[in-house]
Design a protein that fits this description.
The complex is a heterodimer of chains A (675) and B (171). Chain A is of the alpha+beta class and 675 residues long. Chain A contains 21 helices and 21 strands. Chain A has five domains: 2-141, Up-down Bundle (Four Helix Bundle (Hemerythrin (Met), subunit A)), CATH 1.20.120; 144-274, 2-Layer Sandwich (Alpha-Beta Plaits); 301-355, Orthogonal Bundle (Helix Hairpins), CATH 1.10.287; 358-537, Histidine kinase-like ATPase, C-terminal domain (Heat Shock Protein 90, 2-Layer Sandwich); 542-674, OB fold (Dihydrolipoamide Acetyltransferase, E2P). In chain A, β15 (580-583) and β16 (586-592) form a beta hairpin. Chain B has one domain (2-163): CheA-289, Domain 4 (OB fold (Dihydrolipoamide Acetyltransferase, E2P), Beta Barrel). The chains are: A alpha+beta (675), B mainly beta (171). Chains A and B meet through α11, β20 and β21 of A and β4, β5 and β7 of B.
């Protein structure tokens, strides 16, 4: 049973997330019926599930919450800010409800009864009515609508007695939901037109709760000399059936008129459809979830990790097999090896794509954050999300949540100004925060930009000096100054607010991002806004690298950091005193990896310099020779090398030897500081 | 669970470093490998010999001799890597230990294990579980978790008790 409960909680948490997303959408488009339906459906499923697994509290709570949306669905209530706010708090409360341990908490109880009271008040504003009656009544009401077909062919001479048929149609349309098809096919050629005659006739589909007499009343004065056909098509609202409307519209377009017979036939079909849909209504949610389970299944991440490990191992083994086949000319082996190679590659690609998940879920969470913050800080903000379908390794996404949340908080709190100040500065009153994700090579870039006040480099500089983080006489570029915000112990907020400035500074953001092998950069213009750019690797477990050899040991340098490779003769490297080498006319500082790794100098006359990007400069790393490109399955070096972070891991080559993967940034930093 | 195992299984793997014989509880030993080429990790401490490929995983290898404050020795045909499953703060970590030669698996009853004499021992007492006398030989039973744990970078040799310690602390 516990197992089932766990499943339920997992699923419920997902449903609640879904609910939250739908509610946020609904807030933007309060009249979108599809969204109201969606909210209702999710609540319905949640209620059903919780009842099934014995979460009675959730069951009864959701039941009441659902009633609100049932009323909205039936047009008895309008989506209002009030209702949404209560629903949002309810969603938070539902999250708390998933943990049964909370149930005894007095705070929880107060929230619960408070929300229940508010919800009941919405459902029964005046008198306490049996709410099941209410819903029944609502259904009765929607059931009393009928669909009529009206063919109105006015007498040609209708204009002569001063009647405008359009007024009649207007009156007709005021009776309810309608669809009017005007037919012009009797219109003669332009020469033959007599402007005093009416050539047009109309077909109308009308959904109304009035009876047939009310329709006749509209045409009471023209009925005698015009052709009028009024026919009740069904006791349903056929115009709600999109398929029906489409079919009729299509026919009206291609034919001169649709005709009662055809309409009746279509109507019968539509009624059948609606009845079927009605019959399905209760099982519909079930089916929906079933469809979902067929499309995707829940797999524990442990299993995925295991799969990834096995695939990595397979890739390595396959590389060995290829090498073996190359070295031993066994007839018939080559095609098999080639096949294995192909299959492994496909398997690897699929396995890697499994652990990539869209960043959507993460971004969705921030929408809620922005909503809450803008209420709390009284700042109006447009939050724009772009590229939510960008996919990233799940471990990266998990680790991205906190830093991004912090950045967005900062933008809201320090970046966006209050509307009054914004207007004074000639900006639109509503601020804008743009969250964007996109691919760039083997990286994913995530950008948070706002059109707020921006960061003043002078203030930052002054502050860094006063805190003793930089010497006062040091000249710094604007970028260097902006980068100071990533230093530990730096917090620019003049006053600590509840929102940001909780002791987690940008230094923590930077650390968390670099933990997942990412980089973070800040750009800002005073008065125009700030952009924070996070650059992340697509996945943590495989990298494109350059295989190089140093003292006959293989090493991998990540391709992403490499700028260019040069061959340089030995003289120019060992006979310098300032460690600068001239390449393509520019002087580039370099480090000989042999020397830095405490190895003997090589005997080769030519050495190769791999120029890598380090911060904003280019730095050369001297290696013996470059072997070639290599796709490295990154393996951790283990806890014993934890403090030894100049290597981000190791990879196993085709012949089974281990090659270390360099973290060029850290290596260069270490070399530079050891000087 | 660990202690339960230890109480139930009385088997110990013995190995030699120089002339001294040591023992590790079999529950700690995963595997014994022949010596294979080791990929050196530049700039790492001396006793961390490097890493090897253990069936697709990267295994750090420690030279037990250096760790035990002995001079390094040439690898011979008998040199082995014992793959250990070390418990570091409740997490299982695999590590390879280079030893001169693996001897045997012995049954040693708990009653045979004697505490180490407090004086005159070369090793810090927290690394030693005890001593056992088997067929007129003395075997030092080691606490592998303590010796090969991550933070224990220092030598296990008691610095008060001399020996060639300078070689590994200089780097």
């Amino acid at each position: 049973m516990d197992n089932f409960k766990k499943k339920f909680i997992e699923e419920a948490a997902e449903l609640i997330d879904k609910l939250e997303v739908a509610l946020l959408e609904l807030e933007k488009k309060p009249n979108d019926e599809a969204l109201i339906q969606q909210v209702f459906r999710v609540m319905h499923t949640l209620k059903g599930n919780s009842a099934m697994f014995g979460f009675e509290l959730i069951d009864s709570f959701t039941h009441n919450l659902k009633s609100i949306y049932d009323k909205i669905r039936n047009g008895q209530l309008e989506v209002s800010k009030d209702i949404l706010n209560i629903t949002f708090s309810s969603v938070d409360h539902l999250k708390a409800m998933l943990d049964e341990q909370n149930y005894d908490d007095p705070d929880f109880k107060t929230i619960h009864s408070g929300l229940m009271g508010k919800i009941n008040k919405i459902i029964n504003p005046d008198i306490v009515e049996k709410e099941s009656n209410n819903t029944e009544k609502a259904q009765d009401m929607s059931g009393s609508f009928s669909t009529f077909y009206i063919l109105f062919e006015p007498n040609e001479k209708i204009f002569s007695n001063g009647t405008n048929p359009l007024y009649l149609l207007d009156e007709l349309c005021s009776l309810g939901e309608h669809k009017v098809y005007a037919h012009f096919n009797r219109l003669p050629g332009i020469k033959d037109i007599n402007p005093n005659l009416c050539y047009t006739y109309w077909e109308v589909l009308l959904v109304t709760d009035k009876d047939v007499n009310a329709i006749h009343d509209v045409f009471i004065f023209v009925e005698t000399d015009s052709k009028l056909e009024i026919q009740k098509l069904a006791e349903e609202n056929l115009l709600a059936d999109k398929e029906f409307v489409d079919e009729v519209s299509h026919l009206a377009d291609i034919q001169k008129d649709v005709g009662l017979v055809t309409i009746q036939r279509l109507a019968a079909k539509s009624v059948a459809r609606i009845n079927k849909a009605k019959a399905r209504e209760f099982t519909k949610e079930r089916i929906a979830t079933k469809d979902k389970t067929a499309a995707s299944i829940r797999v524990s991440s442990d299993k995925l990790d295991h799969l990834m490990n096995l695939v990595s191992e397979l890739v390595t083994t396959q590389a060995r097999l290829s090498l073996f086949a190359e070295q031993n000319n066994v007839p018939g082996l080559a095609p098999i090896v080639e096949n294995v190679h192909k299959l492994t590659r496909q398997l690897r690609d699929i396995a890697f794509s499994i652990v990539l998940i869209p960043i959507e879920n993460l971004f969705g969470r921030f929408q809620r954050l922005i909503r809450d913050l803008s209420a709390e800080l009284h700042k109006e903000v447009d939050f724009i999300i772009e590229g939510a379908d960008t996919e990233l390794d799940k471990t990266i996404i998990e680790n991205l949540s906190d830093p991004l949340m912090h950045i967005i908080r900062n933008s809201m709190d320090h970046g966006i100004e209050e509307s009054r100040i914004r207007i004074a500065n000639g900006k639109p009153a509503k601020g804008k925060i743009h969250l964007k994700a996109f691919y760039s090579g083997a990286n994913v870039i995530i950008q948070v930009s706002d059109d707020g006040a921006g960061i003043d480099p002078e203030i930052i500089h002054a502050k860094a000096i006063s805190k003793g983080l930089v010497p006062s006489d040091k000249k710094m570029s604007k970028k260097e100054i902006l980068d100071l915000i990533f230093l530990p112990g730096f917090s620019t907020a003049k006053k600590v607010t509840d929102v940001s400035g909780r002791g987690v500074g940008m230094d923590v953001v930077k650390k968390k991002i670099s933990d997942i092998r990412g980089e973070v950069e800040v750009e800002s213009e005073v008065g125009l806004g700030t952009t924070i750019t996070i650059k992340l690797p697509l996945t943590l477990s495989i990298i494109d690298g350059l295989l190089v050899s140093i003292d006959s040991s293989p090493f991998v340098i990540p391709l992403s950091s490499i700028d260019k490779i040069y061959a340089v003769d030995k003289e120019s490297i060992y006979n310098t005193f300032n460690n600068l080498v001239t390449l393509d006319g520019t002087q580039i500082p370099f480090f000989s990896l042999r020397k830095e790794f405490n190895l003997q100098p090589s005997n080769e006359e030519l050495e190769q310099v791999v120029v890598v990007n380090f911060e904003d400069n280019r730095v050369g790393l001297v290696v013996d020779y470059v072997i070639g490109e290599y796709q490295a399955v990154l393996k951790p070096l283990g806890k014993h090398y934890k403090s030894h972070d100049i290597f981000s891991g190791a990879t196993i080559l085709g012949d089974g030897t281990v090659a270390l993967v360099m973290d060029t940034n850290k290596i260069i930093k270490m070399f530079a500081t050891s000087k | 669970m660990e202690t339960e195992n230890k109480n139930q299984i009385k088997s110990y793997l013995t190995f030699k470093l120089g002339n001294e014989e040591f023992a590790a509880h079999v529950s700690k030993v995963l595997n014994i490998l022949e010596m294979t080429p080791i990929t050196k990790v530049p700039k790492a401490p001396d006793y961390l010999k490097g890493v090897i490929n253990l069936r697709g995983a990267v295994l750090p290898v420690i030279d037990t001799r250096i760790k035990f404050g002995m001079p390094e020795a040439e690898y011979t045909n008998n040199t082995c890597i014992i793959v250990l499953d070390i418990d570091v703060d409740g997490e299982s970590v695999h590590v390879g230990a280079i030893v001169d030669s693996v001897q045997a698996v012995l049954e040693i009853d708990n009653s045979q294990i004697m505490p180490l004499p407090t004086l005159g021992s070369r090793y810090k007492s927290e690394f030693i579980i005890g001593m056992a006398k088997v067929e007129e030989r003395f075997i030092i039973i080691l606490n592998m978790d303590a010796i090969f744990s991550v933070d224990e970078i220092t030598s296990i040799v008691d610095s008060n008790q001399t020996v060639a310690e300078g070689s590994e602390t200089q780097q």
